[in-house]
């Protein structure tokens, strides 16, 4: 029974690893991920933004909306700001607990 | 085989080796150092996989703060060979 | 009670004293450039906390604890959290919603960078939130390590 379960699980993993694209390679186009998309730009252009050199402005991207070059920061602090607030709350609660347990009482 | 794959395979081998070494050692301080080496190699792995944010966080927390806490703990107890 | 017996060797002390300002400056760099380069509040805060932890390991807790009270570190951490929440609430009044980026396109931090440029005054409220989270993480992690190191010395007193 264990061997059958192992073989089935191994077959699933093998199938998934064959179906993956090359390791570490980002998708080069939106159509590779969403075949029915009606725009054909790369995924980076869609997320980071596309620079229109003649008009000197950004089009449809995170850089145009938040003004930050680092898109990871604009996701962490702007688009998903509530996540960061929750993480800060977790840190605050942990430190308050440690201070309550181990902090020496002052007179 | 590209340089990328060779680097990833070597890093994986070194990481597993240092993880095994860290539970193999009887000396606790050497074990903690091996754990720090594993964490540093993991941050290098993240950097190769184009995730420098996670690499900086891993190098700061995993290789420095955890090691410091464990070393403080080991310093406040008796080491194995002094028994 | 002097803390001389819990210091490490002179080599470790000298190297720690040399590395402390460099590490702290690198941590401030990572926090300030969080919206331009990889890194941000948490990463830079972890680096800064590791600088303080290096001093704690090298010089002993009690010698550091005379200069740097853990209550002040806790106040520093709470100040960071307060800045985060206040800047977030300003988004309700000055823009549309909680945590809205109300400074982008405006005067101080609002420049939108052109292609290939990385101005420091871009990003709207992101640098302020980065600094707030960095203060939180520096104060919090170093306060936790300092308390955990103090509690191991408690029985020897």
Question: Any key phrases for this structure?
Answer:
heterotrimer, B: 83 residues, mainly alpha, C: 157 residues, 0% strand
Average pLDDT level of chain C: 86
Main sheet summary of chain C: none
Measured as a percent range, the helix fraction of chain C is 55-70%
**Helix-strand string of chain C:** HHHHH
Principal-axis shape of chain C equals elongated
Rg for CA atoms of chain C:
19 Å
**N- and C-termini, Cα separation of chain A:** 66 Å
Counting DSSP H or I runs of 4 or more residues, the number of helices of chain C is 5
Outline the biggest β-sheet of chain A: 2 strands, antiparallel
Give an overview in words.
The complex is a heterotrimer of chains A (107), B (83) and C (157). Chain A is mainly α. Chain A has 6 helices and 2 strands; from the N terminus they run H-H-H-E-E-H-H-H. Chain A is flat and about 65 Å long. The mean pLDDT of chain A is 81. By secondary structure, chain B is mostly helical. Chain B has one domain. Chain B is built from 3 helices and no strands. Chain C has 5 helices and no strands. The model of chain C has no long low-confidence stretch (mean pLDDT 86). With 157 residues, chain C is mainly α. Chain C has one domain (4-156). Chain C is elongated, with a radius of gyration of 19 Å. The B-C interface holds B 52-53, 55-57, 60-61, 64-65, 68-69, 71-73, 75-76 and C 6, 30, 38-40, 42-43, 46-47, 49-50, 53-54, 56-57, 141, 145, 148-149, 152-153.
Provide a short characterization of the protein structure:
The complex is a heterotrimer of chains A (107), B (83) and C (157). Chain A is mostly helical and 107 residues long.
Secondary structure elements and their pairing?
The complex is a heterotrimer of chains A (about 110), B (about 80) and C (about 160).
Chain A: H1 2-19, H2 30-33, H3 43-47, E1 50-52, E2 57-59, H4 62-66, H5 71-79, H6 81-102
Antiparallel strand pairs in A: 1-2
Chain B: H1 3-24, H2 28-48, H3 52-76
Chain C: H1 10-32, H2 41-59, H3 61-67, H4 70-94, H5 126-152
Helix pairs in contact in C: 1-2, 2-3, 2-5, 4-5
């Amino acid at each position: 029974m264990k061997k059958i379960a192992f073989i089935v699980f191994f077959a699933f993993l093998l199938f998934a690893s064959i179906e993956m694209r090359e390791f570490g390679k980002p998708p080069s186009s939106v159509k590779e991920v969403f075949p029915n998309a009606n725009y054909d730009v790369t995924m980076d252009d869609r997320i980071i933004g596309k620079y229109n050199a003649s008009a000197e402005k950004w089009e449809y991207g995170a850089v145009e909306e938040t003004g930050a070059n680092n898109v990871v920061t604009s996701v962490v602090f702007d688009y998903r700001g509530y996540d960061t607030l929750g993480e800060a709350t977790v840190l605050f609660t942990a430190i308050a607990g440690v201070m309550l347990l181990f902090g020496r009482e002052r007179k | 085989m590209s340089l990328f794959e060779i680097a990833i395979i070597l890093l994986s081998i070194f990481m597993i080796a240092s993880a095994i070494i860290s539970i193999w050692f009887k000396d606790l301080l050497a074990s903690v150092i091996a754990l720090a080496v594993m964490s540093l190699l993991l941050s290098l792995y993240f950097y190769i996989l184009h995730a420098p944010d996670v690499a900086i966080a891993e190098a700061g927390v995993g290789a420095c703060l955890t090691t410091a806490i464990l070393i403080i703990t080991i310093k406040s107890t008796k080491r194995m060979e002094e028994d | 009670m002097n803390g001389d017996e819990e210091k490490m060797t002179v080599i470790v002390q000298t190297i720690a004293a040399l590395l402390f300002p460099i590490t702290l400056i690198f941590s401030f760099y990572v926090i300030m450039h969080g919206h331009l380069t990889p890194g941000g509040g948490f990463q830079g805060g972890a680096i800064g906390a590791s600088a303080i932890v290096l001093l704690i390991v090298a010089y002993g807790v009690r010698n550091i604890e005379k200069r740097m009270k853990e209550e002040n570190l806790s106040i520093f951490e709470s100040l960071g959290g307060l800045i985060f929440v206040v800047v977030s609430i300003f988004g309700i009044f000055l823009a549309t919603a909680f945590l809205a980026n109300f400074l982008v396109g405006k005067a101080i931090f609002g420049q939108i960078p052109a292609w290939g440029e990385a101005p420091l005054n871009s990003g709207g409220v992101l640098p302020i939130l980065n600094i707030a989270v960095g203060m939180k993480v520096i104060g919090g992690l170093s306060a936790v390590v300092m308390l955990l190191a103090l509690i191991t010395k408690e029985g020897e007193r």
